[in-house]
Amino acid sequence: MLTLDTPLAKVVGDRTAKAMAEDLHLHVVRDLVRHYPSRYARRGEMTALTDLQVGDRVTVLGQVRKVDTRPMRNRRGSITEVTVGDGAGSMRLVFFNHKHARMVVGAWGLFAGTVSSWHGQLQFNHPDCQLLDESTDAAEWASAMLPIYPASKNVSSWVLQKSLKLVFGSPETADQLLDADPVPGDVRRRHGLMPLARAIWLKHHPETPEDVEQADHRLKWDEALVLQVTLAARRRAAALEPGIARPRRAGGLADAVDRVLPFQLTDGQREVGEALAAEIAREQPMHRLLQGEVGSGKTVVALRAMAQVVDAGGQAALLAPTEVLAAQHARGIAGLLGPLGRAGELDGDPEGTRVTLLTGSLRAAARRAALAEVADGSAGIVVGTHALLSEGVAFADLGLVVVDEQHRFGVEQRDRLRAKGTRPPHVLVMTATPIPRTVAMTVYGDLETLTLRQLPAGRGGVSSSVVPVAEKPGWLSRAWERVREEVAQGRQAYVVCPRIGDDEPAAGDQPEDADGAPDGTDPAADPATDRRPPLAVLDVAEELRAGPLAGLRVEVLHGRLTPEEKEARMRAFAAREVDVLVATTVIEVGVDVPNATVMVVMDADRFGVSQLHQLRGRVARGKHPGLCLLVSEASTSSSTGVRLAQVAATTDGFELARLDLETRREGDVLGAAQSGRRSGVKLLSLLHDEELIAEARSEAAALLETDQGLAAHPELAAAVAALNAGDRADWLERA
Ligand code: ADP
Ligand code: MG
């Protein structure tokens, strides 16, 4: 008797079960039935053997004609050549060491691999194989959709299919699946969804593409509903825990900030500011996501909110993703506040507060002093990196947490900072990378969004061009000329490279730019093709100094420098003592030097879409027009080249966010805690299932309205509990 909880060892034997667990994370029958086919093969969609081209990665359907095994000549082991044909053409499959056990003459199978050629004959070297079940007759499989499962070296799609056959043969499992449906019956009826058992069966045994579509729709629903119920429950819990109202007070720091601002606020800044001020004045903790284009002036919006909290007797923390950015924020805020930011010092204004920088690299004495100011409350504004999250940091009365450039911060880190208040503080998360609605509803399910659409007047704007060096080699020298021209006009330039150089670990700029490594975001990157290593800061800087930019003041900046060195070099650049800064993505977020007008991004194809958008935001910050040159060896007609052209063609953050989502894997978007296995999100797509997610969100809210403990829906409650348990486990691992 098989049930959903039967260990797979009882179904497939110990060895295969072990491989299933290790390679595919499948442990019990429940996991196996949720291991969906990644695609379906149909005869009509197969490439005919006569149409094969060397280099194609294809699946062919053929019948085994000949199997010939012999020992290898120069090595131990054997080689097996299998000839398959499809009636029109034929090809050879080559296997080593009896990896072909089921190849018998007459069998039909699917073979997938990359076509190569040997002595004029087309062949696959050790292709993926799936022999068709001997019992299926030819006519049946000709029209059937053959499920192809995500497999591994030790667990073939074939084995998975056989195991599933056993499972589906068990009436107990089928019954259990009927009862295990997390989507309540009335929700199913309202949205015309088939029962879970039917959907799972169809997903594994579809006859038509419509079957797959319907099954997917149904299965996505339970993913979306479980996720949304989880998020809605968290929102409710957060709303029930009161924070502290920090109403605006006239004549305090907030008014003083408005007085000293060297510019007029934009209408957008004013409106968003009012919305924030009103929410901070309430007891219910604020949870806001502030989206605003690069350069839209989010910092000052945050500063005004922070000042309000200080006026109400609380402290505000500004969390930045890098030390460079934290230092810049602290410097900028302190500079703006002047004596108002130096309360307690000789020239300080007693009405003001203190702006304290707290980063991991502070020396012991400075750190102690900073910690003391944070703990006794004299630091009203605390700026820092993730060092703020560490154990030893205690706030006197944390009232507001501002997280800058949130895409570098996980939900967990945000929660950890939130826990530092005696009561939950207000939270403002800021990002320049617009977040598609679906992502806001899932990953940031607990954040309501505010948007700054307008840029301050008088911005030069930035224009971007691709420099396709493979096709237009001359354009690169033209790019360096442009840099020289800008420098001659008194402007400055950035040159960005994907790597530091000098045999660093391949991942790149690690220490504090944890996700700055520009890899994993490029779907065009084919690990099989040997691409040269990405260009490196140290090499490029040297070449520029010796050649195209000789005579200019060229400096480098990267994550391997000490924080003091980084800080010193940023300062020198800001003070115009450096003309050209050759850097890694350390400068990606928030660095603000309005005099910099050109950016040359080397190997631009190695960066993700939103990274490029962030990067070029560094040169659109002043009144002079900015120029961003995306240098790439990719051909303009390749998918990578097209993507770069799209980035160059638009500065609309929302369009770019969409493009970004298209080019990233969903898991990256969902983030570690909510991706893949743990969240059970396998089919749901943030890009394509917006409507479904929105519907699930409102069903989730309704469910919690009427049935708060989910008492009437034990299956749903169990699924939600499993998701939360996963999170908790994740949390423990990290702590
Ligand atoms: P971001 O939204 O990208 O974080 P910042 O807050 O760094 O942008 O602001 C970019 C630049 O614009 C800063 O130099 C800031 O002082 C300036 N700025 C902000 N608001 C205004 C405004 N209303 N008018 C003119 N300049 C502004
Ligand atoms: Mg910023």
From TrEMBL:
SUPFAM superfamilies: Nucleic acid-binding proteins (SSF50249), P-loop containing nucleoside triphosphate hydrolases (SSF52540)
Domain of life: Bacteria
Segments of skewed composition (Acidic residues): 503-516
A Pfam family: Helicase_C
Helicase C-terminal domain ranges (all copies): 510-662
GO molecular function: ATP binding; DNA binding; DNA helicase activity; hydrolase activity
Residue ranges annotated for the Helicase ATP-binding domain, each copy included: 279-452
Keywords: ATP-binding, DNA damage, DNA repair, DNA-binding, Helicase, Hydrolase, Nucleotide-binding
Region listing for Disordered, in residue ranges: 498-532
Name the UniProt record assigns to this protein: Probable DNA 3'-5' helicase RecG
Lineage: Bacteria, Bacillati, Actinomycetota, Actinomycetes, Geodermatophilales
